[in-house]
Amino acid sequence: MKNRNFAQRLGFALSGLGAGWVRERSFRTHCVFAVLAVAALLVLRPAPVWWALVVLVVALVMAMELVNSAMEAVIDLLHPELHPEIKAAKDMVAGAVLLISAAALVIALALVIDQGLPGWLRQVTLL
User: Fold this and answer.
1) How confident is the model at residue 39 (pLDDT cuts 50, 70, 90)?
2) Is 1 domain-assigned?
3) What is the pTM assigned to this prediction?
C-alpha cells in the first residue's frame, strides 16, 4: 500500500469516512452536531478566529470518533472474547472521545458568551 499517488490516498481516506458514516451511529451523530456548529457560526457571524477554533475542535471530535471506531473494530477482530484488558483499552479510547467532546462543548459555550445572546434568543427569553 506504500507509494500510492495522491488520488489513491485520498480515495482511501474518503472510503474511511464513508465506512464511519455507514457503520457508526456515533459518527453520524457527530456529523449532525458539526452541521449545527456551522449553522451557529453562520448565525452568530463571529471573528475568523472563532471559525478556526470551532472547525478545529469539530474535526478533532470527528477524527477521534473514527479512531475509536477503528480501534474497536481491530480489537474485536483480533480478540472477540471478553477480557478485562480489552475492555480497559476500549474504555480509554471512548474516554478520549468524551474529553474532546467536552472541550468542544466548552468552546461552544465560550463562543456564545463572547458573542452575546443572539437577538432572537434575547426576545424569546424576555417574553
Assistant:
1) very high
2) no
3) 0.83
